[in-house]
Amino acid sequence: MSARIGTLHDARWVLFDDDTRLLFATNFDGDWTVKDLQKAVRVHEAFQHLLDEAS
C-alpha cells in the first residue's frame, strides 16, 4: 500500500475529549481506492477492539 500512497506529508496522533478519544490524522500524495478504505475500516475495528479490551 505504501507504494500507492506516495509521499506522506504529515501524520499525528491526538487525544481529545478528556483523553477518552484518539484521532490519527494524516495526509499524503495519492488517491484512495475502495480497497484502501476497506483496510482502514478493518484497522479501525481492530484498534477499537484493543481499546475496548484495555478499558
Protein described:
The chain has one domain. The chain has about 55 residues and is α+β, with helices and mostly antiparallel strands. It has a two-stranded antiparallel sheet. The protein is built from 2 helices and 2 strands. About 45% of the residues lie in helices and about 30% in strands. β1 and β2 (about 20-30) form a beta hairpin. The chain starts with a helix and ends with a helix.
Report the order of strands and helices: HEEH
Calculate the mean pLDDT score and round it.
78
Low-confidence stretches: none
Task: Report how far the terminal alpha carbons are from each other.
Answer: 31 Å
Structural class: alpha+beta
Quick one: how many beta strands? 2
Q: Estimate what percentage of residues fall within beta strands.
A: 25-35%
The biggest beta sheet, please? Answer: 2 strands, antiparallel
The tally of domains stands at 1
Note the total helix count: 2
Which descriptor suits the 3D outline?
Answer: flat
Helix content: 40-55%
What radius of gyration results from the CA coordinates? 13 Å
The side-by-side strand order for the widest beta sheet comes to 1-2
Summed up:
Helix content is 45%, strand content 31%.
Features:
single chain; 55 residues; alpha+beta; two-stranded antiparallel ribbon; 2 helices; 2 strands; flat
